User: Fold ABC-type multidrug transport system, ATPase component from Fructobacillus pseudoficulneus.
Amino acid sequence: MSLLELHHVSKNFGSYKAMDNVSFSVDTGRIVALIGPNGAGKSTTMRAITGLMSYKDGEIIFDEKLVSLAKTSSLAKMGNLIEYPSIYPNFTARDHMNYYAMDSKDHADIEELMHLTGIDGEKFGKRKAKKFSLGMKQRLGIAISLIRNPKLVVLDEPMNGLDPQSVRDIRNLIQTLAKKGISFLISSHQLDELQRLADDVVIINKGKILRRDTMADFLAEGKSAVNVQTNDNEKMLAIAKDAGWEATAKDDHVTITVTDGVSAQTVLAKATEAGLEVSDIQTGKTNLEDHLLEVLSTDATRV
Assistant:
């Protein structure tokens, strides 16, 4: 039996189905990405799992116990950071850790946890939470979610407000804890980060689960693409679209889907013919964002 199991769970807001027959599981020590567009049902699903919201049909089982709004005893070993951390403005980081550890006989080592999450430095010290930046509050929220030595941690946008170094630190922390057997269910719009972090992926849209797979297998089925970086990517994108190619601009490059007649050689030839300077060109599989959009596009055509 998996650590967390959802069986045919449904939740309505009036006539709107926020969760429509939702079923998936999270195994011990696995990092699972719950992804989908805005309004897909991610937050509703997480709130139901953490006992913060009732649901209409089905059942949620955590650690072999039923979870519901009325039955939350099983949640003692579940940590969460949903939306915004519950922070008291006049408490320091240490005050928070001591407070949230009070009702737990088996809480984590506070000193170690503060160090692991980076809330023990001089920036925190005796400073009250009302003076914390958004990133500092996120770090504190993650630390709070880990205070009870949970078996499962549910995180909604955990990287929100963090600088690149902090993102890497939190990623390393999550991966380290997963190797020790702690499971994670994470929702984030930072799909490139989830691609690096997650073992498994669950895609939800319009309250329905579209896919459940390992991250590796999901990405492997994506389309091949040519990623090209030039001195004028906007012009490169226009050239690709004029040629009838499926293309998108991403960060510092243009991604062109490989189809019949499209290869790195043909893309390079088009760019050179247009007088563009190509600084980098590579062929590989589409990333998590691209493949998610493919799946959502296919789902939309079935409506």
Q: What stands out?
A: Residues 223-285 form a domain with the Alpha-Beta Plaits fold (CATH 3.30.70.270).
